[in-house]
Amino acid sequence: MLDHIKNEDVLFLDIETVPQYTEFENSPAIYQKLWEKKVKNLRDNTGDETPSGLYQRAGIYAEFGKIICISVGLIKVQDNEKVLRLKSFYGDDEKQLLMEFIDMLNRFSGKKDVVLCAHNGKEFDYPYLARRILINELKLPRMLDMAGKKPWEVPHLDTLELWKFGDYKSYTSLELLTSVMGIESPKQDIDGSMVAHVYYIEKDLRRIVDYCENDTLAVARLFLRFKGEEPLKPENIESVTT
Question: What is the C-alpha separation between 211 and 187, in angstroms, rounded?
Fold first, then answer.
């Protein structure tokens, strides 16, 4: 499985997103009006179903959220052993971190046959990145520009899709999949539902960066497991994020 893909040609990634504003009441009037229209389809009779109460979900929609961290990972071979290098682009200035990410992505895609790999990436990470790049008036990098491409020409892998084996009936979280595979859980500190609180209330962006890098590491470990290769050694995992 995946034997035709070289480890060093894969860029593993994960993103963390939050609502664009601390609270619904702090957002512009037009934003509130559009969110009110959006949430008409989100009400599910669980908890607070007002636009304000549902605003915690805004971060998962590119039109109402923003990216605060992108973590990437690359596998290299050193002394005949696999080494994973992690790097994160993060901050309050979304446009700046996207510019830095695009620059890295364009340099990486200068190679032939390179691919992106994320968990649920085809439904979330890849389209979210593309949409926020356009919203920030930046040029879409080639690896995220899917216009006119045939399915087999799209350089995207998705560990969720790989796990489905053609079954589209259910969603398997990264936490669940790593657990059943005997891989260390990436959710050791916080989970996705806590990111906005940690960002806006605790103001601990570094904690979110660590969480995002753990998810990226988990995706890389799953990829190697799918290929039937030896796992990464803990001492061969490096973060170059400053």
Answer: 7
